[in-house]
Amino acid sequence: MPPDLATDVLNEDDRSRFEAIVMPHLDAAYNLARWLLGGRNEAEDVTQDAMLRAYRFFNTFHSGDARAWLLQIVRNCCYTWLQKNRKWVDVDELDDASVPREKETPETLAISLNDRERLTRALEQLSPHFREILVLRELEGCSYKEIAAITSRPIGTIMSALARARQQLRVLLIAPASKEARLGL
Amino acid sequence: MGCELAQTRLHAYLDGELDATGSADFNQHLRNCPVCAGALEEEEALRQGLQQARLYSRAPAGLKLRIAESFPGIRAQKSAGLGLISWRWFAVAMALLLAAFVGWRQLSIGNQRTAAVVAAVDAHLRSLQPGHLADVQSTDQHTVKPWFDGKLDFAPPVRDFSSADFPLLGGRLDVIEGRTVAALVYGRRKHFISVFVEKAAPDTSWSGSGEAQGYHWTAWNKDGFTFCGVSDVSLADLNRLKELFIQD
Fold this sequence. Notes:
The complex is a heterodimer. Chain A is mainly alpha-helical. Chain A has two domains: 3-84, RNA polymerase sigma factor, region 2, helix turn helix motif (Rna Polymerase Sigma Factor, Chain: A), CATH 1.10.1740; 113-183, Winged helix-like DNA-binding domain superfamily/Winged helix DNA-binding domain (Arc Repressor Mutant, subunit A). Chain A has nine helices and no strands. Chain A has helices at 12-21, 26-37, 40-56, 66-84, 116-125, 128-139, 144-151, 155-174, 179-183. Mean pLDDT of chain A is 80; it is low at 1-7, 97-106 and 176-185. By secondary structure, chain B is of the alpha+beta class. Chain B folds into two domains: 3-52, no CATH class; 61-247, Phosphorylase Kinase, domain 1, CATH 3.30.200. Chain B has helices spanning 3-14, 20-32, 34-52, 61-70, 72-75, 87-105, 111-127, 141-147, 235-247; strands at residues 136-137, 168-176, 179-188, 191-199, 208-212, 215-222, 225-231. In chain B, β2 (168-176) and β3 (179-188) form a beta hairpin. Chain B is globular and about 60 Å long. Chains A and B meet through α1, α2, α3, α5 and α6 of A and α1, α3, α4 and α5 of B.
């Protein structure tokens, strides 16, 4: 992080406001970055970058949902990082209604508290767009409206994307071995 | 409502995004359709798995400091020579600053309660530092309750509310305004709730609820004890926990 980016743009009052309403969402920012980027180091760097951006552009935030505002910035930083590091090519499958729906198997999913690793692996195999939507909904507890704001998508898309994300996750959990074939990745 | 419509609404229902009429219609359909009821059950199991598997990654404490240091504005509030002091003390200092600010903001609710809120939020913040959450970590109330024996001059009521999605995670001793109190730690999805318990006394008993710097608090009295819950969960969630205590 070049130090010259951190210009002293906020006055005393705004600084206090930033600390009071944005800083408490640091965990949310880091969690999203961690799930989108995978590694701890990458997540720390990108979170710091995003926080600094939020700080510098705090004057553009007037009121409303500070968490959603911050997570939007974090998300953009994450995707920039993913693209810059060629970890992922952005194919917006969320808007693509032609993706075939996976038929669910009759097996019942038994997920217990001990399945942290299994769930982590399955989540990591999802594409970032589906992963972020599940992380925001299930881990962060965001409403559809908040997810729509964070991801700049219509609420209707969020609803159908969540349904498909859950379906894909279930498929990955049931048949981890053949997930590429089943998801057509 | 037909199955096809129900299928598209199932996720909105699961996520609490249907309005009252929509929910009622969906419920009506569920009663007559075992297929949709089964599908909902599957989704609920998946959700429960996701929410209970502790997949949430909290920001490492070192990151907080690194970010704070990269802001000129925040640096101005630190004392000189901080580099020599560990981040833990910095975090404690920030918590105290925050608590002081909280106290200042809450002046209108009266000095007595202000001090208690400040102290409770402060204690909760301290507990969020790594390794400070609980002195005894157990989801078993029969392990947590005896742990307090001999450490306090009262036996705090300890209950696990896992069945209502408020699992007991453990307990610790804390100090509120110079008094040693029991702190029970509950989980709510990825969040933590501290419930401080002490013997009710005329000068320390208090009740009410409010918000202080992004943290919610709610205080109540029952059976000669004063309780104060502090957390970043919604006030509705905190009040739900309070109801569980009161109904217990």
